[in-house]
Amino acid sequence: MMKFELPTLPYTYDALEPSIDAITVEIHYDRHHRGYKNKLNNALEKYPQISEGKTIENILSDINSIPEDIRLSVKNTGGGYYNHNLYWSILSPNGGGKPTGDLLKAIEQNFGSFNEFKEKLTIASNTLFGSGWAFLVVNKSKELEIVQYANQNSPLSDGKTPILAIDVWEHAYYLNYQNKRADYVNAIWNIFNWKVIEKLYNKAVK
Ligand code: MN3
What we know:
Blueprint: H1 22-44, H2 56-61, H3 68-89, H4 101-111, H5 114-127, E1 132-138, E2 144-150, E3 161-167, H6 174-177, H7 181-188, H8 194-205
Antiparallel strand pairs: 1-2, 1-3
Helix pairs in contact: 1-3, 4-5
Residues 28, 32, 84, 167, 169, 171-172 line the site of manganese (III) ion.
């Protein structure tokens, strides 16, 4: 059976400071993310053929084809694995600022301006009740949308391709920010890797 692997973190644990502290990154990546990966592989063990030649994107996009007895587990752990793959990949110690090119144009077209987009995504992150994620996605009409998902549910299962993810589970910020989720969400704008997000956008609208 093919096993899913933990992607290498593209920077050191302390690289995202002061936006996200080193201990939070280490625990979040090495325990939470690795835990989802391990539990996903365990869940798939019963049906080794399911993951053969498939990416996690393939699996989440067609979640209803997963046998019912492991579907919820694959949805939770596979979603957790995939969402964190995306999250770490779109952050960078040299991030921040604004996107350029087609993504910036699409943002301005959909949301009015980059600042209005920033405000809407910030509100979506701050108002999500409980644990979950705010995403910028490309929907089936190839348009940008801001969406909120509870737990580890994935927009891929609704035919939407996420290109930016903000983890608002408490484990993503609590050690440094305690209950102040809004401060963490404000700080994350300083570490978005717009080059990577632009690439994901260009691929999704193709
Ligand atoms: Mn998390």
